[in-house]
UniProtKB/TrEMBL annotation:
It is a single-pass membrane protein; Single-pass type II membrane protein. This is Biopolymer transporter ExbD. It comes from Kineobactrum sediminis. One of its GO terms (molecular function) is transmembrane transporter activity. Pfam families: ExbD.
Length: 134
């Protein structure tokens, strides 16, 4: 009889880890879902500084132009002739989004203007140039 009481006491003293595991899985799902919405152009550019910069809301389409005048969208390099089609596709997914061009200090103005023109030809007139705050 005493042995039965001792086994019952040991069973009652064990900690149930199920609620803790439930919380960990819920947090994991939360971080996975929120991490999907981070948009990146695919490369890091050295942006020019501006004293009149303002934050832009509803940024949907990021286009980066690096120092070698290569154009990057959605973490892949694209040709200047394909910029319009890519912007049209991304703008169709989120019509309220804007286009932000991240141009390197060393990039040519001709390439940046070609990207802005392609965005306007695609029907997006909310085009901004990304800068660092002075």
């Amino acid at each position: 009889m005493r042995r039965n009481t001792q086994a019952a006491a040991e069973e009652e003293s064990q900690i149930d880890l199920t609620p803790m595991l439930d919380v960990v899985f819920i947090m994991l799902i939360f971080f996975i879902v929120t991490a999907v919405f981070i948009k990146e152009a695919g490369i890091e550019v050295n942006r020019p500084e501006a004293s009149t910069s303002e934050p832009v809301e509803n940024v949907n389409i990021l286009v980066a132009v690096n120092a070698a005048n290569e154009i990057w969208m959605d973490k892949r390099r694209i040709d200047v002739r394909a910029v319009r089609a890519n912007i049209e596709r991304l703008h169709a997914e989120n019509p309220k989004g804007a286009v932000v061009v991240q141009a390197d200090n060393e990039s040519n103005t001709e390439t940046v203007v070609a990207v802005i023109d392609a965005a306007r030809e695609a029907g997006v007139f909310d085009v901004s140039l990304s800068t660092d705050e002075k």
